[in-house]
Amino acid sequence: MSEPVRLMRPYMTFEDVEEDFRAVFSSGQFTRGAHVDAFVKDIKHYTGAEHAFLATSATTALWVALKCLGIVAGDEVAVADFSFPATANVVEDLGAIPVFVDVDLDTFNMSPADLAAKITPKIKAVIFVDALGNPTGLHEIQAVCRQHGIPLIEDAACAIGSTERGVRCGGIADITCFSFHPRKLLNTGEGGAITTNRADWADWLRVKLMHGADGMRGLCLDFIDYGYNFRLPELQAIMGRKQLTQLDAIVANRNAVRQAYVEQLAPIGFMPQRIGDDVLHNVQSLVFRVPKNLDRNALVHYLKTKEIETTLGTYCQSGTTYFSKKYADVQPRAMQLEATTITVPCYEGVPVTRVCDEIIRFAQSPGRAKTPSNG
Length: 375
Hints:
By secondary structure, the chain is α/β, with parallel strands linked by helices.
C-alpha cells in the first residue's frame, strides 16, 4: 500500500539540531542567547534589510507593525483580501477598520487599480500580502503607496526566499512581517520576524519588544516606556538558522517540483498562480485554479480517499462569517479564488506523478462535471 502523501514536510530533522539543542540544555540559556542574536543577523543579511526583530508569529509581528505605525481606533487600513484572516484580524483588534482590496485572478495579489480606487484620507496604511509566497506586483503597490504618502506593510508570512526585481522580500516594503509556522519553508514550530530599513521604527521596535526597556539604570533595566514580550526562544532560533542556510536550495527544488506539476496539470485546464517575469517565487504553496467544470471540494475529498492531502488555496477574508456580517463588503474575485483553488503537496521527493494521475483520473471520470445539483 502506498504511503500517505502529506501536504508539507519539514526540511529539517532532529539530528540537524540535536548538538546545538543539547548545548542549550547544558548552558541553561533558553532565551536571549547567542543563537537568537545570530538568527537576527542572519535574517538581516539574507533579506538585505537594515534592521530585523524576532517575534512569536507573523500575527504578532503584524500587530506590532501596526502599533509602530501609530494605527489607532477609527483609522482605516487597506488589506489584500485573499489571505489567512490573521491579516485583517490584527487591524480589527486595534479598533481600526479593514478596507478589503480585491485581488488579481491570475497572481492572487492585491489589485493596484482597486487599491487606488479605495484610497481616502482615512487610509493610514496598506497591507500587501504575498499570496502563497508570490510577491508579484509588490513594487507596483509600493508606487501607489508612495504617490499617496501611505506606509506599506508587507505581509510576507509565506514569502521568505522570494524576490521581485532582484530584491528579496524583507527589503522592499516599509516594514515586512514573516512567519515561521510549520507549513512555511522556514519552520521554527511557531515564530516570526519583522524587518525594516527605517532607523526610527527600528528604535521603537527595539524598546517596545524589550518590555519598554532601553539600557540599564544601575543594576536595573531602564524602562523608559511600556512594551511587550513576543520573544523567540533559543531552541527555535537554532531551527531557523539551520534552515536559512538551505533556503535557496529549497526554493530551487520547489520550483522544479512546480514545473513538473504544471507540465501534467496545465493540459487538462488547471491554471497555476501567475508569477511575474521579474519574480523568484519560493513556491511556499503550490496552488492551481481548478477547471470551471470541476468541483474543487469534491476533488479534495476524492484525493483524501487516495491518502493525498490537499486543501484550498486560502481565504477570502471579507467573506468570512465575522467580516461579512460586520462590513458586508465581500470582494468577488477573492471569493472566487477561495472557492476554486487547490493547494497540492510540494516538497523534495513528493510523488508528483501519483498525485497528478489521481487528479487526472478524477477530472476524466464520468459524472465529475459540475451540475446545478452538485455545485
